[in-house]
Amino acid sequence: MANVYDEAYALETAIRNSNDYKELQELYAQLQADETGKKLFDNFRQVQMSLQQKQMQGEEISQEEIEQAQKQAQLVQQHDVISKVMESEQRLSQTLTDVNKIIMKPLEQLYEGFDNENE
Amino acid sequence: MANVYDEAYALETAIRNSNDYKELQELYAQLQADETGKKLFDNFRQVQMSLQQKQMQGEEISQEEIEQAQKQAQLVQQHDVISKVMESEQRLSQTLTDVNKIIMKPLEQLYEGFDNENE
Ligand SMILES: [Ca+2]
Ligand SMILES: [Ca+2]
């Protein structure tokens, strides 16, 4: 019987060897070499995170902040490498979300079965 | 090269076949057959969840609620099957936390490497 940890490491290796992962690695390297692009991207990330944090903490976000964020989003989308980075990140993130659903299924089913029989 | 989804399903199977998973399945079946124990456990779960929710929403938790929850926790710990269920759940949950760390490592390292080179 395959050990859970062995299988987890096998999955980790499969992720590292996946085309999506290698592509993102390559795109990051390209962006790293592009000083202006990297700054643009870092700035975009920071603004996104600060807005998310404000939202989570229930702080108000001004109309000006929203407009600035939108302008910045348009700007990064026009940047060839950055737009590719963002698409690639989204694909990898979707795969990892799927993977998480797959491996949480056994526990989920156990809880469901346990709960429902008593209702 | 092994496909990410194939490896995820192999990991899922390993989880289902693990001793910890089978043990928890068996313990749930035992608790299901014990009407009083099952009610005690369901009640305990509900109180825990409601307290967690209050905490997350920043609502105040009264001294009385805390004392009730503590009494209930003592009660379930004295129940043989329930205390085993709780230990078993904790073991499985620790394994899944470890697994999650293992499979998130590649992405984490990618981000770290990307970030640090520019600092
Ligand atoms: Ca239920
Ligand atoms: Ca950094």
TrEMBL record, chains A, B:
Source taxon at top rank: Bacteria
InterPro entries on file: Com_YlbF, YheA/YmcA-like_dom_sf
Transmembrane segments: none
Record-linked Pfam families: Com_YlbF
Assigned protein family: Belongs to the UPF0342 family.
Record-given protein name: UPF0342 protein EV213_12120
Species per Swiss-Prot/TrEMBL record: Aureibacillus halotolerans
Lineage: Bacteria, Bacillati, Bacillota, Bacilli, Bacillales
